[in-house]
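Instructor's aside before we start: the two examples that follow are unrelated to each other. I chose them only because their records fit on one page, so don't look for a connection. First example below.
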Amino acid sequence: MIFLVDASVYVFRAYHSMLPDMRDRDGNPMHAVFGFARFLGDLIERVRPSHIAVAFDQRRADSYRNRIYPAYKANRERAPADLALQFERCRELCRHLGIAMFVDPEYEADDIIGTLARQMRTQGMRAAYITRDKDLAQLMRDGDVFWDFGARSQFGYHDIERHFGVAPERFADYLALTGDDVDNIPGVPGIGHRTAASLMKAFATLEELYDDLGSVAQLRLRGAASLAQKLTEHRESVYRSRLLTRIACDLQLGVGAEGLRRRAPDMRSLGGLYDQLGFGPFLRRQGERLAQLPVG
């Protein structure tokens, strides 16, 4: 199994949950880096993965999705300067820990994770998605695991529909109908999560739904009589939204299975980084334990 880590979730979690009292030699807060390092160390010690990769976002106004819809994520404020610096240090940390790290100016961490999962699936390897981001649920296939490591909650393929109300393969269509306020993706006004989930169960694909709008009024849904009109009015927006919600799994990352194997930490460079960041003995001891584990 390959463990695919959605880095932003855990960097943000550390940034907002820990006191900013850890500072590097220049006085910059480094508490998010400490929390992220501890999370990665705990994950590796617990699961001892043979293959692992960490994916980061790099927000760009000319990214793939922003070219499709310029307002995509326009509602989000830019990361504070101290957090942006800590993201850089987190990427550096991964390299010293012997973990494959990816960031792409064109695509998001989700797309990197989706590409790696598909690539490794062709070699018979299942994936564990270390995240709390529901968008990644669409990547789940039988044998995979969706795991928010911090909350200790795990879901298998068949748990996704019970938990989120829609099967993994339908998630992109579902989000195209409901929209996503977090990412500023428009949906169909009046179609909430329950209605969208019901539509996904009644029709095999978004295309099938639009090919048979006449049947929508016959569904046992509140407001079913007006649904077809709403869907018709927002058809173009729905299909555009699906381009935004669907994870791209065909990136050219230039890495094979061997490049995703976990390596032993470089203790010398890791210690130098911890000196620079002002970290004490806790993470160093954890790093020494990681260095003793069998590698991938």
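Example two begins here.
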Amino acid sequence: MGTNQIDDIDATDTSGAETEDPATDRNFVQSLERGLSVIRAFEEARPSLTMTEIARITGLHRGAIRRLLHTLVQLGYVQSDGKNYTLRPRILELGYSYMASLSFPEIARVHLERLAAEVDESVSMAVPDGAEIVYVGRITVRRTLTVDITIGSRWPAHETSIGRLFLADLAEPDLRASIADVEFHPRTGRSVRTLDDLRAIIDKVRADGYSVMDEETEAAVRSIAVPVRNHRKQVVAGINVAIRDAGPRRSLEEFLPALRRAGEEIEHDIAASVTMKAKSPR
């Protein structure tokens, strides 16, 4: 799963412009800044505003606000009953291009960062690629595993907590074909060694809706993973947290709810991105 390419910037653009003082920057468009400040004045707590209220929030003169609001109304981004102004749904178009341009890992990154900060442990995201998983996101809080996992690292699906989520999502014939020829490489005394044991674990993952690997990769390290599903309810990715020296109860009670919240938030943003891509002008 690749990342999106960034379009070439116009040759007349200056790379340092965003750090210049607007007061001395000849390329800075003040009217655009003012228009955006009017839009940003509307929030969930104040969805309807008068011109006086917008003036107080933005610090702009009423004459400038009147012209800006008139323009926004004419463009269909704002509506008014003669006194109060509110944003119209068309304002969402301003975010379509950005959301549509984001790759899957970019959409998830903010949630991975928030999750890592919440649990104070390293978290990862991976996607399936045949019999393997590929790590596409990684936020490192502390070095938990001896094995160095980086973006682009590959690992056999059956040997990872995330990979087992993908296996559990397969239809029965596909699952049998996928695990028929797996090779086992035990790393600890608790590593899976037989096909029957692997199958029992996959059945449990399917029933639980999450995956736990308890000291199978490294002693005193537990990995918990939850799926990320698309709008068809297919598992398209997984996120996990690796915890060192955490007891069974603490691992599930403290980390699983946070993982699930992050997974749901990523699913929500994926769905929003798909919708925006469908609606974004071609």
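Residues 248-279 form the longest helix (32 residues).
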